[in-house]
Amino acid sequence: MSRIGKTPIAIPSGVDVTLAERTVTVTGPQGSLRRVIPGEITLRKDGGAVIIERPNDERRNRALHGLTRSLVANMVTGVTAGYAKELEIVGVGYRAQARAADQIELALGFSHPVVVDAPDGISFEVPTPTRIVVRGIDKERVGQVAADIRKIRKPEPYKGKGVRYAGEVVQRKAGKAAK
Predict the structure, then answer these.
(1) End-to-end CA distance of the chain, in Å?
(2) CA nearest 35: which of 143, 145, 138?
(3) pLDDT digits over 148-161, tens only?
(4) Residue 164 and residue 149: Cα distance in Å, rounded?
(5) Please, where are the H alpha helices in 54-138?
């Protein structure tokens, strides 16, 4: 039995979980999320908790058991607290600037500024010109948008310039040695 999958998901007050056929909908103070449950995994509400069950011990069902539990737990956390991913910009002249509520403009050493639009459910904050905070209720989308911004100018290994996650350690290479 999966240690993660068999753990029930507590439903906090103010959160409503609706189960319909293969779809689970979680609604809370921050918004609403919906997901289709894969395979033969079943969900049931038991008082103030959601329990995930699998029909048998086939390899696919064992894999989906813990995954489904994690996905639903992330939905519950997202609609209550939300998720945030912080990015740092390192480099002389590299900076970020908020243009509108759902846009940021990045100066990353290209001949032109790069404008990034926020998808639905995602918001950007620029507390300082070298920090970007990506916020939203869907953990997957927050992580994907942060990865897309990082992909515009990844940290390079010689000087470490580029966009990186907050706290990310960039392995540095030694430069060319003089004779």
Answers:
(1) 62
(2) 138
(3) 999 999 999 998 89
(4) 9
(5) 59-80
Under 8 Å between Cβ of 146 and 165? yes
CA dihedral of 96, 161, 86, 113, whole degrees rounded to 10:
20
Nearest to 171 by CA among 87, 160, 162, 92: 160
Low-confidence ranges of the chain (pLDDT < 70): 1-2
Angle 110-113-117 from CA coordinates, rounded to 5°: 125
Q: What is the pLDDT of residues 123-138, one digit of tens each?
A: 999 999 999 999 999 9
What distances in angstroms separate CA 153 from CA 6, 103, 137, one per listed residue? 41, 18, 26
* Per-residue confidence (pLDDT) for residue 39, from 0 to 100: 75
Which pTM does this prediction carry?
A: 0.87
Displacement of CA 88 from its chain's centroid (Å): 16
